[in-house]
Design goal:
6-stranded mixed sheet
C-alpha cells in the first residue's frame, strides 16, 4: 500500500498548518526531509512523541516545524503516521507538502485517511460517516449526536440487532439440515415475538432519523404573504440583524433574500419573498413568480397575515394553491391592535399571533415550529440520530425484510422463506456499519469527504 500525504488543516493563512503522512513508509519519507534539533532520526524515536527541527529540500530550509511520530496500529488510520506542524502561511504549507511528495509519498484523495481507518478495521462505516457529520454540524445537538456516533452508539445498536437476526437464521438452517435433533415446533411463535421487538427498535431509529435530518440539513422555510404584512421584519427578527429593507411602502422586497438561522435546536434555511399580489410592475411580477417557485420547493411556509384586518379572499386563494404544503399561519402586528382579528383558519392550520417588531409571541412561534418537525423532543442527553440518507435507506430495507418475515409467519409459510428474508434484513443492516458494503459504494462515500481527512 502506498504512503499518502495531504494538508489536513484549512486551506487558508493561519497560525499553524498540519501535513499528515500515513502509510508503511510514512516515517522513512518524513526522515528524508526533516532534520531534528537533536540530530536523531525519526525512525529511532518512540511512538507518540513530538520533535522539533526543520524541513529541508535540496539543501535549503523551508520552515521550522514540529513533527509527531505515531506508529501502527494505534493511529487514526491504523498505519504509521507522521504529522508535520509548520507555520500556517499557504505558500510555506504547500512547499512542505511538495517536499513530502518529492520524498516518496503520493497525494491523498479526499477522505482517504478515514477510508484507510475503515479498511484497516479501526472504525466501522457509521463511525467513518460520523467524522464528516462532526465537520458539518450546524448546532450543538447535531455535534453531540455525531460525537455519540463516533463513540459507536449506532454500531452497538445495529450489531445487537444483527446478532439476534443471525441467531434465528442459524437456528432455522440447522433445523432444516438436521430435523431429527433440532425441532422447529413452536419456533415461529418465539420468532414472531422477537421480530416484533426488533422492528420496534428499528422503527424508533427511523422516527428519530427525522430529527437527524433536521439537525444536519435544516428546514427549507419560505416567508410568504401579501405586501406589507411584515415578512422582511420577520426575517430580520430571525437573523438578529437588518438583512432586509423594511418600509411602510408595499412591494419593497422585489427578490428573494436567504438567510440561515437557528431556532432553538433546529436550523432554518429562511427565504424572504416578494409580497404576493396582482401587479402591472414587471420587476415586481418577477419577484412574485419567484416567491411562488420558492413556496413550491419549501418544507415549511410561514404565511403572514395582518392581525388588523385578518385574512381575505386573496389569502384563501393562495392557501388553496399551497394545500399540499406544511403551513404555519402567523398573524403579525398584534402590537397595533387591542384585539386581533379572528382566525377562521384555526382548525385547518397551526397559527400563532406575533409581533415581529416587539417580539411578542416569538417564543410560542419557536415552540410550534419544533412540534411540527421533531418526532420527539431533542434532549441534551447522549442520544444519537441516523442522519445520513444512505443509512436511512439501509435501515428501512432491513425493517421491510423483517415485516416480510412476519407476513410469512402469518401465512404459515415454510421456514425457508423466513430464512431468506432474515438474511436480507441482516445484509441490509450491515450496510450501515459497513459489514455488507461493496467497494464502489465505499469509494463513493469517501469521495464526499474533505481533503486531508
Amino acid at each position: 500500500m502506498s504512503t499518502i500525504a495531504a494538508i489536513s488543516t484549512g486551506m487558508t493563512n493561519s497560525g499553524i498548518s498540519i501535513i499528515r503522512v500515513s502509510g508503511p513508509d510514512a516515517i522513512a519519507v518524513t526522515d528524508k526531509i526533516f532534520v531534528a534539533k537533536s540530530g536523531r532520526k525519526l525512525e529511532s524515536q518512540k511512538t507518540h512523541t513530538i520533535h522539533y527541527g526543520a524541513v529541508y529540500e535540496n539543501g535549503q530550509m523551508i520552515d521550522e516545524v514540529l513533527v509527531s511520530v505515531m506508529r501502527a496500529p494505534h493511529t487514526y488510520t491504523a498505519e504509521d503516521v507522521t504529522e508535520i506542524n509548520c507555520h500556517g502561511g499557504m505558500l510555506v504549507t504547500k512547499k512542505v507538502l511538495r517536499a513530502v511528495l518529492n520524498a516518496g509519498a503520493v497525494m491523498a484523495e479526499p477522505g482517504e485517511f478515514t477510508k484507510r481507518a475503515f479498511l484497516n478495521g479501526r472504525i466501522d462505516l457509521s463511525k467513518a460517516e460520523a467524522v464528516m457529520e462532526v465537520i458539518r454540524a450546524k448546532n450543538d445537538l447535531a455535534l453531540k449526536s455525531s460525537v455519540s456516533q463516533l463513540r459507536g452508539k449506532i454500531y452497538k445498536e445495529i450489531t445487537e440487532i444483527r446478532e439476534i437476526i443471525l441467531h434465528h437464521t442459524a437456528y432455522i438452517e440447522a433445523a432444516l439440515d438436521d430435523p431429527e435433533h433440532i425441532s422447529l415446533d413452536g419456533f415461529t411463535n418465539e420468532l414472531k415475538a422477537s421480530i416484533i421487538e426488533l422492528r420496534l427498535r428499528l422503527t424508533a431509529l427511523s422516527d428519530a432519523a427525522n430529527n437527524g435530518k433536521i439537525m444536519r440539513d435544516g428546514i427549507r422555510t419560505v416567508i410568504l404573504g401579501k405586501p406589507n404584512v411584515g415578512k422582511s421584519s420577520l426575517l430580520n427578527l430571525f437573523a438578529g440583524e437588518e438583512r432586509a429593507i423594511v418600509t411602510d411602502i408595499a412591494g419593497t422586497t422585489r427578490d428573494t433574500i436567504e438567510e440561515n438561522v437557528r431556532v432553538r435546536d433546529i436550523s432554518l434555511s429562511l427565504v424572504d419573498t416578494a409580497g404576493i399580489r396582482k401587479t402591472g410592475d414587471i420587476v415586481e411580477k418577477i419577484g412574485v413568480d419567484r416567491a411562488m417557485e420558492e413556496a413550491e420547493n419549501a418544507e415549511l411556509i410561514l404565511y403572514l397575515i395582518d392581525s388588523v384586518n385578518g385574512p381575505n379572499e386573496e389569502d384563501y386563494e393562495l392557501l388553496r394553491r399551497l394545500s399540499d404544503k406544511k403551513i404555519l399561519l402567523l398573524f403579525n402586528k398584534i402590537d397595533l391592535v387591542k384585539e386581533p382579528a379572528k382566525n377562521p383558519l384555526s382548525e385547518q392550520y397551526p397559527s400563532v399571533y406575533i409581533s415581529a417588531k416587539t417580539e411578542e409571541g416569538v417564543d410560542e412561534l419557536y415552540s410550534v415550529i419544533e412540534k411540527m418537525f421533531l418526532q420527539k423532543e431533542i434532549s441534551d442527553s447522549d442520544e444519537f440520530y441516523i442522519a445520513g440518507e444512505r443509512q436511512m435507506q439501509a435501515l428501512n430495507e432491513g425493517n421491510r425484510a423483517l415485516s416480510q418475515v412476519l407476513e410469512s409467519i402469518e401465512l404459515g409459510m415454510s421456514e425457508d422463506f423466513m430464512s431468506i428474508d432474515l438474511m436480507q434484513a441482516y445484509t441490509s443492516l450491515g450496510m450501515i456499519t459497513g459489514d455488507s458494503v461493496e467497494e464502489d459504494l465505499i469509494n463513493t462515500i469517501f469521495r464526499e469527504f474533505c481533503m486531508g481527512k
